[in-house]
Amino acid sequence: MTVSVKQPTVWDVVFSLKTIAAAGLALYIAFLCDLPNPYWTITAVYIVAHPLSGALTSKAFYRLLGTAIGGMATVIIIPHLIPSPELTTLGLALWLGGCLFVSVLDRSPRAYVSMLAGYSVGIIGFMVVDAPETVFDYSASRVEEIGVGIISAALVGRLIFPRHAGPVLAERIDKWLKNSADLAIMYIKGKGKSEDALQRRQHLAIDAVDLRAFTTHVTYDSSTLPSTVNAMRVLQSRMVSLLPMVASCNDLINQRNKLIADQCGGKSNNTKLDELIGETSAWLQTHEPMKPEGIARIKALKQSVLDDIGRSKVWLDLVSRNLTLRLVDIMEIYSDCLHLRNDIVNGTQHKLRWHRFDFLGEVRSIHYDFGIAFLSAFSAILAIFITVTLWRMTEWTQGATAAMMTGIFSSLFATKDDPVPAIRGMLKQILLVLVIAFVLQFGLLPLVDGYLPLMLSLALVLIPAGVMMAIPSKFAMGMTMAVNLPNLLLLQSRLSGDFYNFININTAMILGIIVAAATASIVRSVGAEWSAFRLIRASWNDIIEVAERPTDTKAYNELLHRMLYRYGLIAPRYALIPIHSPVRQTDILKDVRVGLDTIELQHLKESQGPTNRQNLANVLEELAFYYRVKINSTDVPDGKELLEAIDTTLDWTLALPDSEDHQKISFALTGLRQNLFGDAEPYKAVLPPIFKGHDA
């Protein structure tokens, strides 16, 4: 079997040449200004480097801001704790841990600010613990060195062959829309349970989460794209709405087919709905916005199906009605996605068609895992304490370097379930870079005399490393080489051939990384299954919350985004979870639909008369209890009381005079019953007790 490896493109080489040019500019300025540790300028360039100018500017802004905050925090913390080096290191560790806590909570690119504000204190503060009177000068020097590198990278990236995000964004959107249409067609054909469909669904959720982060970078792009950010946010809203709708269609079609087989001898009872299903599948294959005549035909088919069903209380008809509305939802959402894609790429503006629960504001609510954030912060603080204790007990001259590296590596991989494999992998790469640095330091650099020969010598490693950084599969190795080589060499304006100092400093770096990994393995490492279940349980808690309190349109959008965001976080973990695990058997998209139907019922409850209002309250109360049992028990609850409450409320709602609210309630109740009790006996309407007028 041949493994396909992406070969470097011209743009990859251009990116590498631009980055080393920025590094050369930064190093030249550092030498010119006689900055004490000029190697930090090259490190800063490669840390913020990115092939897209918008993403580069975004990273540069966040790192510069985080570094400045870290420098100011160091200047504030150390003078107040001068009498005790132990208290000083405690203060620095607590600051780093607190910043890391905030960073782990915010999974957007903005989290970079908090992380940098934390470990910049480690970079600066530990070095001056025994010389607190130098804190201002040392902090200013580090901020200047890192700032020079960041600004050099940003200027070169934006001025020399800038690569804009537009084509990349359009390609990613097109790929997502095509894959979502293919998945929808599979679901409409009843193939949603296949392994292929499951993998497609997971990839779509992951890509939707990635596009959310990508939008943050686009706001810093120098092209016309920033003006389309609002359109991209609306597109993301439509994208996350599409996945649960498509999954719902699969369940409804399978349920309808089963009912037709059991009750109608396998012969469809609604040819108009069959025609609508066929029209939907055929149109999705075109990947083109629907033409006006197509829209008119779909509207006519929808109305014809609903008219045929009328006020029927038969479960097959209720399922068919929900399926009809879901199919139309899919077509409207997908059509909106296609129009928004064209608006983003071409700068046009189309009228959107899908406005169910529409909310025009930006939805910021995503998943916050306070437990993992606390563990990450605690692990970092504990690791720093261990390193500092070794440093103070041994009076090691490079103990501060070890503490600095412990803080950095405790931060870099804090969002991973188990940071240890990533830290261990990077440590192996750093050891390889250390060998390269040794050869350069004591073999090649003694022969170098002058700035240009120095840059040419560094280019032997940095140009290949830059090309690797532009290739996703090789990014980690390229980044490790480019970022760590200048630090391992301790580049100065004059060569230092001190072998003892080289070994001492680099041993401290390696030890600091080892302590970070060892501490994380004890305190922070968790399994993918454990993390996935926490995400699922958080979604169940959301359903309980919306079942117990009134909600509005914004709450609908927040729940939708938050639960789909969690699904995007769970999806990459599925491959690491045993196939028979309860986590693998949980369908979070079904929970998403339950949550949305719950919000609908909560929203409509107050418009009902006393009896039906109480019926809806009973449904919501039993639903909250049902999910509490799921959270607190490994057994699946039978939900008998919830099913009875749903059926009773359906009985009353279907007996009430026809109205838009009553239709919405029966739609949501049908959805709840189908999602939670799809294998139960079909609903059979029972005439409720006699009631007067609309009092029910």
Automatic annotation (TrEMBL):
Keywords: Membrane, Transmembrane, Transmembrane helix. Pfam families: FUSC. It comes from the Bacteria. The keyword Amino-acid biosynthesis does not apply. InterPro entries: PHBA_efflux_AaeB/fusaric-R. GO terms for cellular component: plasma membrane. GO terms for molecular function: transmembrane transporter activity. The chain crosses the membrane at residues 20-49, 61-82, 88-105, 112-131, 370-390, 426-445, 499-523. This is Membrane protein YccC. It comes from Bartonella apihabitans.
